[in-house]
Amino acid sequence: MKILAITSQKGGVGKTTLATALAVAAEQDGKSVALFDLDPQASACFWADRRQKELGESGQTPTVRDIQTARLSHYLDRMREAGADLVILDCPPVHRDIAHDAASVADLILIPTKPEVFDIRAMQQTVQAAQQIGKPCAVVMTFCPPSGPEVDQARQIVGKQGAALVPVALHQRKAYGRAQMQGLAPQEYEPGGKAAQEVQEVYIYTRLQLFGEKKHGSKTGQSRKRA
Q1: Average pLDDT by consecutive 10-residue portion of the chain (227 residues)?
Q2: CATH, domain 2-211, list 3.30.450.20, 3.30.200.20, 1.10.230.10, 3.40.50.300
């Protein structure tokens, strides 16, 4: 079982949007997935509630749980016993102790950031925290404008930090927000859209880092166990 933590010390950078979209992408790839909501705001749980209301029985996956950090290791053990392939940790901003505990058990940390000065500053702090505990991390650019120098400037800063950069950026697209309100991921809301393509490319990158898998659907045809 692999553990992916999605964290940033600043809010509003798209952590839950990324977490839910990657959880759905992994499910579509045939993996058994659990999404643990560590944020007191419980945005991922709200998404899951909307999902079940919209989709009924088919909206019960991926599994989403509201988890207290003190019980994190217990629930991770339960997921291993259940045969889960992937657990995604949706971490809160500001709460450094929670983020630290989540990062400590993660196989990979994704750090979403907007290409704006205050967000980049918070990203740098999060990268440093991951590096201090020796965990691999990668920065994901989010809410990127269609043009302008901000994205390239942010990429240069990431490079100077010595952190990996996910090769695809998530842009400002209505599909992200509209999908969230319906308990969907962008690839479900608008399968042929640009947001869906961006999510899929981020998932491919993440899957390669975690599982070493390059081909999509490597588990197709196998029975999928519920996490």
Answers
A1: 92 94 96 95 94 87 91 94 96 77 92 89 86 92 87 85 90 95 96 96 96 62 41
A2: 3.40.50.300
Amino acid at 9: Q
CA distance 155 to 148: 13
Q: Which among 88, 87, 91, 109 has a CA at the least distance from the CA of 1?
A: 87
**Beta-strand relationship, 108-113 and 63-66:** unpaired
pLDDT at 79: 95
The neighbour count for residue 222, using CB atoms within 10 Å, is: 10
Give the global pTM: 0.90
C-alpha 209: how far from chain center: 13
Closest to 62 in 3D by CA, of 77, 41, 79, 81: 79
Q: Which whole-number Å values give the CA distances from 121 to 15, 152, 194, 208, in the listed order?
A: 16, 16, 28, 28
* Distance between CA atoms of residues 57 and 146, nearest Å: 38
